[in-house]
Specification:
The chain has 406 residues and is mainly alpha-helical. It has helices at residues 5-32, 38-65, 96-114, 124-147, 151-155, 163-181, 194-213, 221-249, 254-268, 277-301, 309-327, 345-376, 383-388, 390-395, and strands spanning 88-89, 94-95. The protein has one domain: Ammonium transporter AmtB like domains (Ammonium transporter fold), CATH 1.10.3430. The chain is globular and about 60 Å long.
């Protein structure tokens, strides 16, 4: 079968960009923790590249995109049964294998996002159990319900590239993880390498063009709009966060600028292909302000969300989904919906109900899942292990020759 070479080539690049986001996340998180915990948190991202791929090939793709069940798919396409090199996806512009690969990269990074919340506190065995159970019981059902023709899709809920499926779900799971594992017992002095954080942010920002623009699954005007909206939202959020933090601390924070950019990227994700560039600027500005406020509230409540996963991804994802319900426009994308300002009251209500329901489920299930895992293998690291550092304690390796500065 003759596929569209332009769309196929673009989607190969987009898939590669989304893959690059997971190493980018590892650098971003690795720079934010102390020197003696760098490898432990980076390993949690990189192991997802391998283990999630195995699960995705074996049954993950099939559970997400085969069958017509309202909550989860079936195993008809386990191990990609029934597909070959010439099997088309959708309208036939790209091969099915390419769509499988693209969606696999989303599955890889989503649970890795959660790890920033429980940095320095979780045993590797427990994390592997968590990664596996969370994919099967949270991520796969959400993908099917939103993108695989399931319940939320049939209801009319929209999520262009993962506000519900990726960011709200990961952020709320992160918050549940924080409550379960508790506070760190060994103080971490904060970012040990801001240049690593900057490198990670750059890779995430670069990869996010594939994350958002690639979600159109072809090359057209919506693809271009999503690409532009991604950069606009990230930039406006970065500047908003920088200005607010500068006003509060009297100093312009580089880490604040970088964190704001990630907040903007997370928030525009569900709306990237459904709103105008002007709306993207508004979404980015709101993201920078509200995500900053969420982090302030988190600090006042003394929740030990080590790397602000809830404040950036959870709050950002929820805001993005709701703002899509306000600002969505069929003039941008006929496959979308008109938001509240265009008379789409019903669509707005659906977006709000969907994201709040999903957030509640992700929080409650994650907490219960961690409690169950803890029965079979201890989840929390001991105080002595925290003081020694997870790199040596869990992996027998160190990122640096000297650990005098932690």
């Amino acid at each position: 079968m003759a596929f569209d070479t332009g769309s196929t080539g673009f989607m190969l690049i987009a898939t590669s960009l989304v893959m690059l986001m997971t190493p980018g996340l590892a650098f971003f998180y690795g720079g934010l923790v102390g020197r003696k915990n760098v490898l432990a948190i980076m390993t949690q991202s990189f192991v997802s590249l391998g283990w999630t791929t195995v699960i995705w090939f074996a049954c993950g793709y099939s559970l997400c995109f085969s069958g017509d069940g309202p909550i989860i798919g079936n195993l008809d396409m386990a191990f990609l049964r029934g597909a070959d090199l010439n099997t088309p996806y959708g309208d036939g512009q790209i091969p099915l294998f390419l769509f499988v690969s693209y969606q696999m990269m989303f599955a890889i990074i989503t649970p890795a996002l959660i790890t920033g919340a429980f940095a320095n506190r979780v045993r590797f065995t427990a994390y592997m159990a968590f990664l596996t159970a969370w994919l099967f019981c949270v991520y796969f059902p959400l993908v099917h319900m939103v993108w695989g023709g399931g319940l939320l899709s049939d209801w009319g809920c929209l999520d262009f590239a993962g506000g519900i499926v990726v960011h709200a779900s990961a952020g709320m799971a992160a918050l549940a993880s924080v409550f379960f594992v508790g506070k760190r017992q060994s103080a971490d002095r904060g970012p040990h390498s801001i240049p690593l954080v900057a490198l990670g942010t750059g890779l995430l920002w670069f990869g996010w063009y594939g994350f958002n623009a690639g979600s159109e699954l072809r090359v057209d005007t919506v693809t271009v709009t999503a690409f532009l909206n991604t950069d606009i939202a990230a930039s406006f959020a970065a500047v908003a966060w920088l200005v607010i933090a500068w006003a509060q601390s009297k100093r312009p924070s580089f880490v604040g600028l970088l964190t704001g950019a990630v907040a903007g990227l997370a928030t525009i994700t569900p709306a990237a292909g459904f709103v105008t560039p002007a709306s993207a600027a508004l979404i980015g500005t709101v993201a920078g302000c509200m995500c900053y406020l969420a982090v302030v509230v988190k600090n006042k409540l003394k929740w030990d969300d080590a790397l602000d996963v809830w404040g950036v991804h959870g709050v950002g994802g929820v805001i993005g989904v709701i703002m899509l319900g306000v600002l969505g426009s069929k003039a941008v994308n006929p496959a979308g919906a008109d938001g509240l300002i265009h008379g789409g009251t019903g669509f707005f209500v659906k977006q709000v109900v969907a994201v709040l329901a999903v957030s509640a489920y992700c929080f409650l299930f994650t907490y219960a899942m961690l409690a169950t895992i803890n029965i079979f293998t201890r989840v929390r690291i001991t105080k002595e292990e925290q003081e020694s550092g997870l790199d040596l304690t869990l992996h027998g390796e160190t990122a640096y020759e000297s650990l005098e500065v932690v």
